Amino acid sequence: MCQIIYNPQYKKYNLGANHPFDHARVEMVIDLMKELGYLKEMIVPDIASIDEILTIHGNDYVSAVEDASLGKQVNDLEKFGLGTFDNPVVEGMAEGARYQTGGTILGAQILLENKAKKVLQLGGGFHHAHKNLAAGFCLYNDLAAAIKKMTGAGWHVAYLDIDVHHGDGVHEAFYSDENVMCISFHESGEYLFPGTGWIHELGKGMGRSLKLNVPLEPFTEGESYIEVLKGIAEPALKWFKPDAVVIQAGADAHFSDPLADLMLTTQDFEIIFKTIIQIVDEYCNGRALFTLGGGYSITAASRIWSILYMTLLGFDIPEKIPEEWRAKWEAKIGKKIPESFYDLLPAFEPIPRKDEINRHNKELIRRVMDAVAGDWI
Amino acid sequence: MLIREVMKTDLTIISPETKLNDAYALMLGRKIRHLPVVEDENLIGVVTDRDLRLATSKLSEQPFDPEIQVRKIMKYPVRTAHPSDPIELATRLMRELKIGCMPVLEESKLVGMVTTSDLLDALLLLTGVHQPSGRLDIRLPNRSGELARLASLLAGHKINIHSILTYPDNERNVRLVLRIDTIEIKFIAQEICNAGFQVIWPPHIACVK
User: How far apart are CA A125 and CA B180, in angstroms?
Assistant: First the structure.
């Protein structure tokens, strides 16, 4: 059984009219599931308390975020990554971020109490938020807070990040923690924000060889992505055998995403979600908490997360997206919505370096496995 | 960047009377490869782990006894650096002389050591990622004011530049690799392109002239 978590208050996490982090992406998913008769009751989480935020973030940082969000004058905004191009100061942002964090923490709670095996949190996924630094549209690291809740109860937790950007904030939070395995699949930091997530970043001290990074080549396509996902995530989770997995299911590795350069189709995402669920069911007690994440092509992200929803709840994916629904949302967002959940193939021009890219990615499996082999005993 | 910023100052020093085997044990124990030899507070030579191994190797024509003093095998005179030298000066000398370290002297006193490892650390500091940031690769006309124009465009968007790396491209241009604190690298690349700069990365940026 899969439990859905959502709070309309998530909308308060609004970084401005033209900001790519657009709440409409989630509203579209919910409205589309309703249209298809797939919408089930959603649990409404409470707002996360300041104390819960402080399990991950520093005092001064949290005060700065909260004060700036209330419109108060804050010194040293830039030191905390605030008031920047990516993280502008917007009134109410802290409250919105805490609502979203509350949802992810509730997801952890549901798993801990064994009330469901799968949870889909229709928000959250703020993996770039560091202990004392806002970055990449992220303020409070809901994922880290939820993972900490579970490790606090004695669980071993795996974190799997398929957002196109490196999950740097979560990796940093648990870099030397032996109870948390982090695996991030992302476009190589040589090219993409945040610039980290290299193979050699393996964790420190007791957390050594528990932090895996898979920096994929720009223009990586689905087949190669899935080969690498299976080649690394499966043996890793089989070995670590966590009590639960937290998945940051960012949708920005889609080929149409304006912020990055990977080339997945919505079909690929369906395979990825099914692969992850299969691994979780086999090696991780079947317990998984999925959050959203990046995804800045609004028409792709809404379809990808709808596919995630339907896959988790066991609904068949309809051939067409209802026309009336499309017309309604096209008017709202001013963009054409594809007729189908699946992308029309071929979705893009052939990639000239495809063979080279695939070879490079295949090597990643061996290089990551070689790097950890000495410690995985 | 100056030698004083990269040199090591917690030095392990030996005297010319130190035995070869003691010097070698010292290197192994402290995980270092170069030992300055000092007599009466003056630097009189340098011994490397390679010097020690070659001197005592069975493969050499006349292997030295490990019990002899380093004075017999140390290299001198020693080429040295000054704390105020720019690191590129020491780097160039070390490449030309094919040596792996330079003792750093100030007023004839040994104050530090700089090795290839320190220079690699400096390279990492210059090229590495120290804060979450995106990468921009620009071809910039090699004339005054162009970098300023680019920097003010970024400042106008409240985007901070974490690091700038430049190298010669051809006669007219330089390549510029910037690390800037935004995830929206394509958006800003478009703006930069529209302002007349040539964007190498991210790719496929179509400019509006």
Answer: 23
